Amino acid sequence: MSRKVDLYDSAYGNYESATYRQVRIETYGEDFGQTSWVTTEESNAIPQLLGLRSDSFVLEVGCGSGGYALHLGEKVGCRLIGLDINKPGVRNANQLALARGLASQVRFEQCDASKNLPFDDNTFDAVFSNDVLCHLPGRPAVLVEMFRVLNPGGRMLFSDALVIGGMVTHEEIATRSSIGFYVYSPPGENERLMERAKFRHIRVKDTTESAARIAKQWYHAREKRKEELVAAEGNTNFEGLQRFLSCVHVLTSEKRLLRYLYVASKEPRDHLTP
């Protein structure tokens, strides 16, 4: 059975480290402080998929260290709020916002997104979550909350890298789950839950091959810098993360675990049932 391994505290606590920055660049091609399976191409497509404009008000559920939300703030000019349960990540995100002169436009709050979201109904023009919902218990209620805070006519996007595609052993599940709480989904379950939450115009894209590629690149980028990373996070944690990344690559490249990107919308007000 795999021991629990720290990914997020190490990643956010060492955000400014040149070593961690080089790992991110080598893994993704760009540095947004990522700890996800989002490719650069997907990052570039998200503003269009969400229909973002300079006057949009956007919520990110699971913002991590805030790099991508700040990128959107700079690129699109929209206002954003990012939520994350990880305190070092939120602290780093707000420090980055201040350093980039974006604190009045983009802000970050520590929040358990598996609970009720701390916003009024119909607040945001878009809501998105990159590889985060699989970490949250009570996904049906989370989707209902995302729908509630979304403006009529607004769009929602999330990705799930834990859709079961084939047979997975208990050892593989333990290794794949070693960095935290996880929920695995059967094919079609996310679509069913989105429809039940009243989302419409659901679109689904299979991004499994991209996740496999990122896992492989992340593994090799870390392996090249083993000495520096062991000094920062300890040998046990380094080896645990390498096992995790290797497991992700095997499961996704063999299509036994799948990653899907989901986009949906909330009907405009004149289409909503009273």
Structural features, described:
The chain is an alpha/beta fold and 274 residues long. It has a single domain, classed as Vaccinia Virus protein VP39 (Rossmann fold, 3-Layer(aba) Sandwich), CATH 3.40.50.150. The protein is built from 11 helices and 7 strands. Helix 2 (18-28) packs antiparallel against helix 9. The mean pLDDT is 95. Keywords: Methyltransferase, Transferase.
Please describe the topology of this protein.
Layout: H1 8-13, H2 18-28, H3 40-50, E1 57-61, H4 67-76, E2 79-84, H5 87-99, E3 106-110, E4 124-129, H6 139-149, E5 150-164, H7 170-176, H8 189-196, E6 200-206, H9 208-224, H10 226-233, H11 235-253, E7 257-265
Parallel strand pairs: 1-2, 1-4, 2-3, 4-5
Antiparallel strand pairs: 5-7, 6-7
In the CATH classification, which architecture applies?
3-Layer(aba) Sandwich
Radius of gyration: 18 Å
User: How do the helices and strands follow one another from N- to C-terminus?
Assistant: HHHEHEHEEHEHHEHHHE
**Spans with pLDDT under 50 lasting ≥5 residues?**
none
- Percentage of residues in helical conformation: 40-55%
CATH topology: Rossmann fold
Sketch the major β-sheet: 7 strands, mixed
CATH class group = Alpha Beta
Strand content: 15-25%
The average pLDDT value, as a whole number, equals: 95
User: Overall 3D geometry?
Assistant: globular
InterPro entries: Erg6_SMT_methyltransf, Methyltransf_11, SAM-dependent_MTases_sf
Protein name: Methyltransferase family protein
Keywords: Methyltransferase, Transferase
Pfam family, one: Methyltransf_11
